[in-house]
User: What shape does this take?
Amino acid sequence: MADEIEQSPMQNPEKDPDDWTTGDEPMTGPQRSYLQTLCREGKEDFSEDWTKAEASKKIEELQNKTGRGKS
Assistant: This one.
């Protein structure tokens, strides 16, 4: 078992939004708020209809476009 990589219970590995079990649910309030800001800054349209997974992908896309979220 020495070859197995142990993962701390506190670690939260990133999971592809397409694999989320709740990805088809409506986006969360914090996602909505942040996306409205990112869309405004990125000069893109905002949609109330995005799912959690779609919102997550759009956040990542707009962070790259606007430079937000980078250390």
Observations:
- The mean pLDDT is 84.
- The helical segments are 29-42, 52-66.
